[in-house]
Write a structure and sequence with these properties.
The complex is a heterotrimer. In chain A, about 30% of the residues lie in helices and about 15% in strands. Chain A is an alpha/beta fold. Chain A has 4 domains: about 5-40; about 110-185 and about 380-590, 3-Layer(aba) Sandwich (Rossmann fold); about 210-370, Dimethylsulfoxide Reductase, domain 2 (3-Layer(aba) Sandwich), CATH 3.40.228.10; about 640-780, Barwin-like endoglucanases (Beta Barrel). A 7-stranded mixed sheet of chain A has the order 5-4-15-14-13-6-7, covered by helices on one side. A 6-stranded mixed barrel of chain A has the order 20-24-21-23-22-27. Chain A is globular, with a radius of gyration of 29 Å. In chain B, strand 4 (about 75-80) and strand 5 (about 85) form a beta hairpin. By secondary structure, chain B is of the alpha+beta class. Chain B is about 20% helix and about 25% strand. Chain B has helices at about 20-25, 65-70, 95-100, 120-125, 130-135, 150-160, 185-190, and strands at about 5-10, 40-45, 50-55, 75-80, 85, 105-110, 115, 140-145, 165, 175-180. Chain C has 2 domains: about 25-195, Up-down Bundle (Formate dehydrogenase/DMSO reductase fold), CATH 1.20.1630; about 195-335. Chain C has helices at about 25-50, 55, 65-70, 70-85, 105-130, 135-140, 145-170, 170-190, 205-225, 230-255, 255-260, 275-300, 305-330; one strand at about 5-10. Classes of the chains: A alpha/beta, B alpha+beta, C mainly alpha. Chains in contact: A-B, A-C, B-C. The interface between A and B is large, with 65 and 45 residues.
Chain lengths: ~800, ~200, ~325
């Protein structure tokens, strides 16, 4: 019927069969095999196998133990070290992203020397050999020492998990007491001083909360989960799963506030009133642990007298909370005591009265009987390991910080005789009473020469223009210096102002000093390289040794190699470099976490002069400060302006990680949080770019606005560390805005030297310029929705 | 019959994105392509009466996945344990599967094939947990066999206040379980979409 | 209760890399859908009409040879668009190494392949039947030896194909009509089988696209027809356009997501989707041509104008509608 000839019919049949064979997928399998021959296999299928090395992470200051996987000479993955007490085998986003830090194409690659005749900040450099750069640096540093009255004329700034070489060892060998870390006066400093003035010892960089056994947790401004320190995240989650109650005091509905049983949206700067009210309730309702108070504290009578008027009703007016809520928390704490903790923040440099606020917190905990008790706060103990022998230091340097050896932080007893000139920051009673060196107070000597000129600066990994308030003053200070050298990994904003830039290898490419972590279970951790240093970068220990030798301090570096140094140190605890590897990268010692442990060891649990917790502190009174904390109000924002507050994001660390390929992919820029009603009044909408202008007329870079219910109307909030002005940082340059650029003023804490940063006020308006780099806006389908109430 | 599922305890999750980044390194997700995981933030209420949670999302490894149906080359398939995978050697990058996923969980790899969460199948074969589960600082993620009555999934479900899945839309039948969500269960009655 | 509770929902932190990838197909896919449905419509019309008149013409046709020839560049053009859209272009042949019955795209691949074969065979059949020898016009180039050799081979090949095509006779025409229908339906089914996209997931869409493809093909027939066949061509255009409008209405009325996202009462809303879909796709592409043809039916004087204008309006509208739907369907994914 269709006139198809037999030949054509057979040809059709053949074609159909061929088609069916193709359609069956057999040929597909063959094609797969062909492709597999050509396409590279994923790293976990590589023939070469995976090499594993130990280290401790450098992506923030927490220093979790890690295991690094390397395939064919390339680092591919970082996992938590299961043997490590900080990471317990888990890692946060930053720890995981270390791989991208290693392979960041924007890294500094060779030593650079600033072109003669150029201005600091022009960014004009020429490459140099290490020999030349180190020789030149040593020569200039010695010149400063010679011309400006001694080694004190050189300041040493440092930050990072290996800042010991440059912020402690080298300056002390050199003879300068002017060494500082931002983690003190713009971070934990006031807390450590408060702890020393109350308990006789610092609180410690690994906050000693006994999460495993506590039943009631109050967090004061502590944004665990955004401040993504690994161990508290783990332990808080477990504690809550166990049934512990959580109270969060924060003007913002932070991530951890979402988990709270009670969220107290406190008015900013009034926390001390709240804490005093709690103390008042505990005393007036006789809910405090009287046995503990009697046995371990002194000054109760004076405390009771001081807080007599600080009732919940009084506090309610100040804090904008309800008296019932305040009372309920006090009673909740009391019911759970001594397994109740009021946990101060880590960064506490808020308003300039921060030492007193933290004293109030520590006093409150003492009334609950939780210090040194199960379910309360355990007591830090540094691991026992000997220092490598070295000649006596030329100066005592008290840089403190959360990575100080033994993690002691706080005030340090003088170990070496003072040289010609004391520290220039005004500590030890001049500008402030006590505590480690206040970094922002070392700027003044660079600008005005008071109390004596500082003309040299060695900066190891400390983000100069993103930490210290009043950036313009810092820049002026840098211009005034005779010599400024920067040791860093990336061409950060401040690095490109230095006279000499030395490229350090990242933590994955180097050995470092052992981590000796004070802890409930003190331990020693190893950092060993996973790969050789890329480009022409060098490890920090090598730079310190080479520089030190040229400065005439060769005697302080008697060891030939770092392996020898580590091996010798480990021998003092009966181990070795190989031994610690075989032990899984970590050597754990026995701690003395509770009062009974210390008493059994015949040590005072609270080593104040009297051996008791000082609820009332004579030394403070003698220096003209409140011996018992009082609430002192601070200036409020003028009408139409907001208090500028700032905090952390869990995928970034300060101003350090914004160029990281993985982390910037997850969070490319920061946002300014503004209350919905406030935004409506100003006519601003969610997602638009705005700018801030502070009380001194400084205008910020454009920043994306986040209109949200999650914040009180009287403040704005942003994540710290963005707004880089560094053309060398391909991903980070021009993204977001810098909170520090708005912090032209700070309030100096007269007790600890802390720099209260939350004292700046801003107005918010639509941005007048385009952002330098803006993230692509999501399509309609992916956008967030906001539904108004019916 | 083994059925692998992931359960995420939203009471523990703090939205720290550790899982998102761990996945990127474990599975070498290219910098300038998409991501296998993402973190959703949901907040309800008006100040100061607020509640909220973080919800990590990735491929839900649906029971009857529309993406597998849509694939013209047979590159994407579902294993016997219910894990939806892509044979990257076979994928031509036509993106039919990407369009078929109502949640947008797949992305185009720079090598030209479509990629997505694989429950770290290469780890499962060795008896290890997916990278996101292993790294999660709050131990919010649990992975295991749904059919194992004594296993971690059933245990977690028994201990949870609520067990939810994201709303099944567009022909998808998610198998990923969200435990203790303050948002999903309460909004199920709304008929609102959650994506 | 919770409907009154205001809420915010979004992606934690600014993470463009991690946004849901809901918008993946772009203009190449829209162009492909248009070209394939045009090819499908042409296959149906030319082969169908030839089948209807088989006893009279036996393969020859009153329609211009272009209506058969244009099938090929249409399909090839669409195929090229699909190829541009592929992530792994070297893997393009994968579609022909397997058949996945649940995948509309797999059906489409095979339909495209077979339509290409069928379309080529039909062209060869026609050229053979009408004794057309386009090579005659090119033979003067044969002075160059390699060109002459190539032409000889091509002619031989053409003869080989034509002879077989001829042998298939009516079977080929039936097959082509079925393939053309499949092709036209496939362009809509590619979208309609994706339940994830509310604007697309409607079984009326394949019929709408098929009918629109028929209307576009009818326009091509009108454009290429001689004066003598113009009346018939006009009738086909009118009927096809009305059919397309009918299926279009069925699709629109049964797709609540479309009515919500691109309401007909606000044709300028929805960014560029609204105007493109309603004003260009429906209005310019279907309503206006139908009106013009109806008027031309009554007013002879209009015919020279409408004969030239209507096909282009339908073609332009068809392309616009496909693009609008491809983009809008992904933008309004929820």
């Amino acid at each position: 019927m269709y006139d198809i000839s037999r030949r054509v019919f057979l040809e059709l049949l053949g074609a159909a069969t061929a088609g069916a064979t193709m359609a069956s997928g057999k040929l597909s399998d063959a094609a797969d095999a062909a492709v597999r021959l050509v396409r590279p296999r994923p790293w976990y299928e590589q023939r070469g196998g995976v090499q594993k090395t130990y280290s401790y992470c450098d992506m923030c200051l927490w220093k979790c133990g890690i295991v690094v996987s390397t395939v064919n000479g390339k680092v591919v993955k970082i996992d938590g070290n299961p043997a490590d007490p900080k990471s317990n085998g888990r890692l946060c986003a930053r720890g995981n992203a270390g791989v991208a830090a290693l392979y960041d194409p924007d890294r500094l690659k060779k030593p650079l020397i600033r072109v003669a005749g150029s201005e600091r900040g022009d960014g004009r450099y020429q490459e140099a050999s290490w020999q030349a750069a180190l020789d030149y640096s040593a020569e200039r540093l010695l010149a400063v020492k010679q011309q400006w009255g001694g080694p004190e004329a050189v300041a040493f700034f440092g930050h990072g998990t290996a800042d010991g070489w440059f912020a402690e060892y080298l300056p002390q060998a050199f003879g300068s007491p002017n060494t500082a870390k931002p983690s003190v006066s713009v971070c934990v400093g006031p807390r450590e001083v408060a702890a020393t003035l109350t308990y006789g010892r610092a609180f410690g960089g690994h906050e000693p909360v006994d999460w495993d056994e506590t039943n009631y947790i109050v967090l004061i401004g502590n944004h665990i989960g955004e401040n993504a320190h690994n161990t508290p995240m783990q332990q808080l989650a477990d504690a809550r799963a166990r049934g512990a109650k959580l109270v969060v005091v924060d003007p913002r509905f932070s991530s951890v506030a979402m988990k709270a049983d009670t969220w107290l949206p406190i008015k900013p700067a009034t926390d001390t009133a709240l804490i005093l009210a709690w103390i008042n309730v505990l005393i007036s309702e006789k809910l405090y642990d009287w046995q503990f108070v009697e046995q371990y504290t002194q000054g109760f009578g004076q405390l009771a007298e001081s807080v007599r008027e600080n009732t919940p009703e009084w506090a309610a007016q100040i804090t904008d909370l309800s008296p019932d809520d305040i009372r309920a928390v006090a009673r909740g704490l009391a019911e759970a005591k001594p397994r109740a903790v009021v946990v101060p923040s880590r960064h506490v440099a808020w308003y300039g009265n921060d030492t007193q606020r933290n004293r109030a917190i520590f006093i409150l905990n003492a009334l609950l009987g939780s210090p040194g008790r199960h379910g309360g706060f355990w007591i830090q103990k540094a691991p026992w390991i000997e220092e490598y022998p070295h000649p006596a230091f030329g100066a005592t340097a008290d840089a403190g910080g959360c990575s100080a050896p033994g993690d002691a932080g706080g005030a340090v007893e003088a170990a070496a005789p003072h040289e010609t000139r004391p520290r220039a920051d005004g500590g030890d009673g001049i500008k402030f009473m006590t505590g480690s060196v206040a970094i922002q107070e070392l700027i003044e000597p660079m600008v005005s020469g008071s109390p004596y000129p500082i003309k040299g600066l060695v900066n190891y990994g400390m983000n100069l223009f993103h930490s210290i308030p009043n950036v313009e003053r810092t820049k002026q200070a840098v211009r005034n210096l005779d010599f400024y050298m920067a040791i860093d990994v990336l061409p950060m904003d401040h690095v490109m102002w230095a006279d000499v830039i030395l490229p350090e290898a990242t933590y994955l490419e180097r050995y470092d000093d052992l981590l000796a972590q004070a802890h409930k279970r003190p331990y020693i951790a190893l950092r060993e390289p996973a790969v050789a240093p890329l480009y022409d970068s060098k490890p920090g220990w090598w730079i310190a040794k080479e520089l030190g030798t040229r400065l005439g301090l060769g005697a302080y570096f008697p060891w030939a190699t770092i392996e020898e140094y580590l091996d010798d140190r480990l021998h003092t605890v009966g181990s070795s470099l190989q031994g610690i590897r075989e032990a899984g990268g970590v050597l754990i010692q026995k701690g003395q976490p509770y009062i009974e442990d210390l008493e059994a060891a015949k040590k005072p649990p609270f080593p104040t002069p009297s051996g008791k917790i000082l609820l009332y502190n004579e030394k403070l009174k003698a220096a003209g400060h409140d011996p018992v904390p009082r609430y002192v109000p601070v200036p409020e924002p003028p009408a139409g302006m907001f208090r500028l507050t700032y905090g952390r994001a869990p995928m970034h660390t300060f101003a350090k990680t914004q160029n990281n390929a993985l982390l910037s992919k997850v969070m490319a820029e920061n946002e300014l949080w503004l209350n919905t009603d406030a935004a409506q009044t100003l006519g601003l909408t969610n997602g638009q770019y705005v700018e801030m202008e502070n009380q001194d007329g400084v205008v910020s870079a454009p920043i994306r606005l986040k209109v949200t219910e999650r914040i009180r109307p009287d403040l704005v909030y942003m994540v710290h560390g963005f707004g880089h002005q560094a053309v060398g940082l391909g991903r980070a340059n021009g993204r977001g805005a810098s909170d520090v650029s708005m912090q032209t003023r700070y309030a100096l804490d007269p007790i600890s030297g802390g720099a209260g940063l939350r004292v700046n006020f801003v107005s918010v308006r639509a941005a007048s310029v385009e952002p330098v780099q803006a993230s692509r806006r999501p399509g309609k389908a992916a956008l967030l929705r906001k539904e108004a109430s019916a | 019959m083994t059925r692998f599922v992931m359960a995420i305890d939203l009471d523990r999750c703090l939205g720290c994105d550790a899982c998102v980044v761990a996945c990127m390194t474990e599975n070498q997700v290219p910098d300038d392509a998409g991501a296998r995981l993402r973190m959703r933030e949901v907040v309800m209420g008006t100040f100061p009466k607020l509640s909220g949670e973080f919800r990590p999302e990735a491929c839900f490894h649906c029971d009857d996945p529309p993406c597998v149906d849509a694939c013209p080359t047979g590159a994407t398939f579902q294993t016997i344990e219910g894990v939806v995978l892509v044979n990257e050697d076979r994928c031509a990058g036509c993106k039919a599967c990407m369009t078929a996923c109502p949640y947008g969980m797949r992305y185009l790899h720079t090598e030209g094939y479509v990629d997505k969460c694989t429950y770290c199948y290469h780890r499962l074969k060795e008896g290890r947990q997916p990278a996101c589960v292993e790294t999660c600082p709050t131990s919010a993620r649990i992975f295991g066999d749904l059919e194992d009555l004594n296993g971690p999934i059933q245990q977690a479900m028994a201990n949870a206040r609520s067990v939810d899945r994201v709303e099944a839309i567009g022909g998808a039948t998610p198998s990923l379980l969200y435990l203790n969500s303050r948002v999903l269960g309460s909004r199920r009655s709304l008929g609102e979409e959650n994506v | 209760m919770f409907a009154e509770t205001p809420f915010e929902e979004g992606l934690a932190a600014i993470s463009p890399g991690a946004y849901p990838h809901l918008e993946v197909w772009e203009w190449p896919v829209g162009l492909d859908l248009f070209l394939m449905s045009l090819a499908g419509g042409l296959l149906i019309l030319t082969n169908g009409l030839a089948l209807w008149r088989w006893h009279q013409d036996r393969g020859a046709s009153q329609l211009s040879v272009w209506t058969d020839v244009l099938v090929l560049p249409s399909i090839l053009g669409g195929l090229f668009m699909l190829w541009i859209d592929l992530g792994a272009k070297l893997q393009a042949l994968r579609f022909f190494l397997v058949f996945e019955p649940t995948s509309a795209m797999s059906w489409g691949s095979w339909l495209i392949g077979l339509s290409l074969l069928g379309g080529t065979a039909r062209v060869a059949q026609r050229l053979n039947a009408e004794g057309a020898c386009p090579a005659g016009r090119l033979l003067h180039l044969a002075r160059v030896r390699p060109v002459a050799w190539t032409l000889e081979r091509t002619m031989a090949a053409r003869t080989a194909v034509a002879w077989r095509a001829d042998a298939l006779g009516r079977g080929l025409l039936v097959a082509n009509v079925l393939l053309g229908t499949g092709l036209g339906l496939y362009t809509g089914a590619l979208l309609a089988t994706l339940a994830a996209r509310p604007l697309w997931a409607n079984m009326a869409l394949p019929f709408f696209f098929l009918a629109y493809g028929l209307a576009a093909a009818a326009g091509v027939v009108l454009l290429t027809s001689a004066r003598a066949q113009a009346d018939g061509a006009r009738l086909i255009v009118t009927v096809a356009t009305a059919l397309a409008l009918g299926f279009g209405a069925a699709y629109v009325l049964t797709t609540p997501a479309l009515l919500a996202a691109l309401p007909p009462t606000a044709p300028f809303g929805g960014g560029w989707f609204g105007p493109t879909f309603w004003l260009l796709g429906i209005g310019m592409g279907l309503v206006v041509p139908l009106a013009l043809e109806v008027c031309a039916l009554a007013l002879r004087a209009l015919r020279p104008l409408t004969d030239r204008l209507t096909p282009w309006l339908i073609l332009g509208g068809g392309l616009a509608l496909r693009q609008a739907l491809v983009y809008a369907g992904q933008a309004y994914a929820r």
